[in-house]
Amino acid sequence: MSLIKQKTYKTTCSYCGVGCGMVVHKDNKGNLKVEGDPEHPGSQGMLCSKGMNLHYTAMDTSDRLLHPEMRWNRNSPLQRVSWDTGLDRAAAVFKTLINKHGPDSVGFYVSGQCLTEEYYIVNKLIKGFIGSNNIDTNSRLCMSSAVVAYKMALGEDSVPISYEDIELADCFLIAGANPAWCHPIIFRRLEAHKAKNPDVKIIVVDPRKTQTTSIADLHFQINPGTDIVLYNAIGRGLIERDKIDADFIANHTEGFNSYRQMVMGRTIKEAAKICGVKADDIYWAVEYIGRAEGFISMWAMGLNQSVIGVNKNFSLINLSLITGKIGKPGSGPFSLTGQPNAMGGREVGGLSTMLAAHRDLKNPQHRKEVADYWGVPAVPEKPGYTATEMFEALRDGRMKAIWIICTNPLVSLPNSQVVEEALQNAKFVVVQDISNRADTVKYADLVLPAAAWAEKTGTMTNSERRVSYLNKIIDPPGEALPDVEILCRFAKKMGFGNSFNYEDVSQIYDEHAGLTKGTRIDVSGLSHARLKEKGTFQWPVPTSDSPGTPRLFTDHQFYTTNKRATIYTVPDENLSEPPTEDYPLILTTGRIRDQWHTMTKTGKVYKLKQHIDRPFLEIHPADAKVRNIAEGNPVVISNRYGQVQVNAKITDTIKKGVVFLPMHWGKILNQSKGRANNLTTPLIDPVSKEPDFKFSAVQVEKYIKT
Ligand code: SF4
Question: How many helices (H) and strands (E) would you count in the chain?
Fold first, then answer.
């Protein structure tokens, strides 16, 4: 397409946590075209297939919600109403419920795709003014186990390294992640580094062979749930072969003796048997890690989305701590954030269990600091409901109303039946979204049309703590409004107007930045103006002339009380629901390359459907054979939670005894039979409250039409 009279804007991709920089060209007819921003230090001009097609989601408004719509009662159809009518009703219902049942009867369920300013406002509204901590986010489903582990092991939820460390490392352990598909630009940097430096070693741990494993020197195709056993065995090997950093352990950590005792309690041969891998390969991993100058572990949902997710994280982080490979160039444990602004959401305290600037909800001084800053009497001490707890509370009647922003829980939360029952049982459901493709709209009493990417301004923070600015490039369609505008209008209807009067969204960022002052995530040196003028910054950025902070813990002083990192000794038993005679296979769920979450955006882009256009079940040839299943046959996957029907994809890239379903498909595309979360269990990690998406016992049978 040749564009005339172009105007050019810099912005940020709004899909994954890599946070790539984009240049958007707009012609005089409003047509958009995107390309990578060569000046962005993280993405260096690159974009993946999703990013390269992001502008199509903005230009195709056929699915967009254009006006507020409301039901006058549960059985009536949605009808177009004015913004005032819709928000007056929402305020009246919220006030009535709060008066009758208390502030914990309402809650907000938001998204790691919300901008930092949006997260800040909704957090301030419920915690400071409504008086409840009932705000949680779909980021709970992706990174909360890593957050807990970082905080406990290092003293703070702080990713220690940057993407630039990739080119400085000579050994990588990629655990429970497929960055080639899910963090593609990080993978491209890794791939290029390996191509230039063949001695760089890559170890991948995944029950599936993926595009990422194609560049691995060592692939541990482990039995699901045995991750801790494997990392402890590697730890044992490092100790046995004297590949640990004894000085670092002695001077900068605590807990090593108990860890050593634990890992020495099982031989590497025994561990290999439990994990379903070769003992020799464990020794090779020990060799690669042990001789590396720079060692980076990278992980994602395979570790986090587990009933033992926090412990899996500890066991991996321990390998960096015992080798002293942290706070040094090309070294550190690196959690790959799934969503574009999961980190920004945590900066403002946008979870039910935390406060702004990573303050601690349990700490009375921290609560007072936040309450004083907002000019409110108090912030409640009691933690709110976390993601899955919120929907259980709605189902049971402990919560009465929910306001869902920019997320589609009917497809994305585990154990979908509970979510359906919750939304049916709720007294009042508000859905604030951009698209009528969100399945949850069907259950909404009030639908509020929101502005999308390119239609609003704000900031996001990516996986490496890098804060980026997003430009407004086009106007939202119809009557859609930026989320902050909707929330501030609602706050005024609730009577909190004086504290929600902003002339510009940059003032919201300034208010958030002020609240971080003096904390470890200080961004008080940043403003929209500085981000627009100078580009991106990695926090902390404590002064207006600070260049930001690419690497943390360079002095090996950790953020714990005694400045030492903690090596946690954790049990290695998996606590997922085990396979049984009736349900002998282990189901794991995950992403495909060209789709994002529940496909409300990517599902409407023709080019992205060319890769994979329908749900499928990956099954090993031996498991298919005993079930008389041939390639492409329709199969029914079932367990005590529900059923899914898709076609079989027979492949030896998956471990025998394990099957894989993509997580993206839901009801909206008439593919209700493909909704993977019909089968996932209600189990969550007891500390992080992250669901056990990667381990559900199921049976698979050939579908026979009756
Ligand atoms: Fe967007 Fe992530 Fe792709 Fe970068 S890697 S273009 S942030 S989806």
Answer: 24, 28
